[in-house]
Design brief:
Largest sheet: 6 strands, parallel
Strand content: 15-25%
Structural class: alpha/beta
CATH class of the largest domain: Alpha Beta
CATH architecture of the largest domain: Alpha-Beta Complex
CATH superfamily of the largest domain: Lactate dehydrogenase/glycoside hydrolase, family 4, C-terminal
Number of strands: 12
Number of domains: 2
Number of helices: 19
Shape: globular
CATH topology of the largest domain: L-2-Hydroxyisocaproate Dehydrogenase, Chain A, domain 2
Radius of gyration: 21 Å
């Protein structure tokens, strides 16, 4: 019987095209129904054409449907993928501009800190509504989330709907592993690793090449200036913390107190040749450009006679295949609740750990304790995220304030009184999106 995959927020062109392509590469899914759902009818029309182009190029017997109804997309689905965005750039740009006014310089702000927390406040109610519909229309479906802030959204959904099969996926783990392999001249097949922590701040506790510790090779490679300069913040963290972190320099400069609390430090460390070294409001510029150019870009893609049908490195399709495709066991790093997985992080918080996918479902792996100094950094952010999730669900202003107040970068820059003023201004700006705080 043909499988059905629902894409919620299908107007996210890059993710949807890539994930549809990946799913259809598996024989078990070649005849699947791909149900595209988005509230933007124009984007929905374009992505339907894009997916039909992929189906035609691969000569797949798959069926593409498009709807603005979440019910229609979800009904009878085996797999659900989520790439929604609650509000466009005109809404969330203030998550970055208001903290900047107070002295908190943010690069992306989609994961944690004041910007990430306010994105979570707006998005958690939507994600819980999606979960309600999944429970109603496809309760046994495997729900894989790509929407940020990953940890807070997954924690909210997994806490409120423990009966659903939910995990969150990010490409930073396999992406960084690939970058490190390339830097030391290793083939990806030579590399194995153990990676654990929290989303965008997980650590390669082991990184091996042909079964041998590859960290000495990485240290040697980083003596070459171009390698060091490509990711300055991450490489400084590796230099002093001894373990490589998963997310890129721009993001990671926001998650600690070391690199963005003074203009001179930003000038020194938030530089380099990587795709996002850390410029202020980088993501606002990216989304503003995309908002201007997306029609032109998708039309150009549709006119291109070439279609790359090779499977990419996102986890989702392989997970689906392991659980209800050909059921080949597949290991990945997923975002799940910390029920005896990482011993020295808060019980029940959202962690990113190895997970085994099989016909039995998703089985997270017990990692044990992180090195103590890494646990300190992860603990602070994880506990802030716990408070933020509670604040979002309860509409609790005090918990919201405390979640922001203990953020490492915010607390390094501002006084408590200044943080309170910033939070109140952000709440006022977001009042139409945050009815739970009225």
């Amino acid at each position: 019987m043909a499988k059905k995959f629902a894409f919620i927020g299908a107007g996210s062109f890059g993710f949807t095209r890539g994930l549809v392509r990946d799913i259809l590469t598996f024989p078990a899914f070649a005849d699947a129904e791909i149900a595209l759902m988005d509230i933007n009818k124009e984007r929905l029309n374009w992505i339907k054409q894009a997916c039909e182009k992929i189906v035609k190029a691969g000569n797949y017997p798959a069926k593409i449907t498009a709807t603005t109804s979440r019910k229609e997309a979800l009904k009878g689905s085996n797999g659900v993928l989520c790439t929604v965005l609650a509000g466009d750039v005109e809404v969330w740009k203030h998550d970055i501009s208001i903290p900047k006014k107070y002295g908190v310089d943010i690069n992306v702000g989609d994961t944690r800190g004041p910007a990430g927390i306010f994105r979570a406040l707006r998005t958690i109610p939507l994600m819980l509504d999606i979960c309600k519909d999944i429970k109603r229309y496809c309760p046994k479906a495997l729900f894989l989330n790509y929407t940020n802030p990953m940890a807070m959204l997954c924690r909210a959904m997994q806490g409120e709907f423990p009966e659903l099969n939910i995990s969150g996926l990010c490409h930073s783990v396999q992406g960084t592993a690939s970058e490190l392999a390339k830097m030391i001249g290793a083939g990806e097949a030579e590399i194995t690793y153990l990676c654990a922590g929290i989303n965008h701040q997980a650590w390669y506790l082991k990184f091996e090449r042909n079964g041998k510790d590859a960290y000495p090779e990485i240290r040697e490679a980083l003596k070459i200036k171009k390698n060091y300069m490509a990711d300055v913040v991450r490489n400084e963290m590796f230099k002093y913390l001894d373990f490589y972190v998963t997310e890129s320099s721009g993001h990671n400069s926001e998650y600690n107190a070391w690199f963005r609390k003074r203009p001179d430090l930003i000038k020194k460390y938030c530089i380099g040749t990587s795709w996002n070294p850390g410029a202020h409001a980088y993501i606002v510029k990216c989304y503003s450009n995309a908002k201007k150019n997306w029609r032109k870009d998708i039309q150009k893609w549709l006119k291109d006679p070439n279609v790359d049908l090779k499977r990419g490195n996102e986890y989702a399709s392989c997970i689906f295949n392991a659980v209800f495709g050909d059921q080949t066991i597949y290991e990945f790093n997923g975002n799940v609740r910390n029920f005896n997985l990482i011993d020295n992080l808060p019980y029940g918080c959202c962690v990113e750990v190895p997970v085994a996918a099989s016909k039995e479902g998703l089985r997270p792996v017990h990692v044990g304790a992180l090195p103590a100094h890494l646990a300190i950094l992860n603990n602070t952010s994880a506990r802030c995220e716990e408070l933020a999730v509670e604040a979002a669900i309860e509409g609790n202003r005090r918990k919201l304030f405390h979640a922001v107040a203990f953020d490492p970068l915010t607390s390094a820059v501002l006084s408590l009184d200044e943080i309170n003023a910033m939070v109140e201004e952000m709440l006022k700006k977001n009042k139409e999106w945050l009815p739970q705080f009225k």
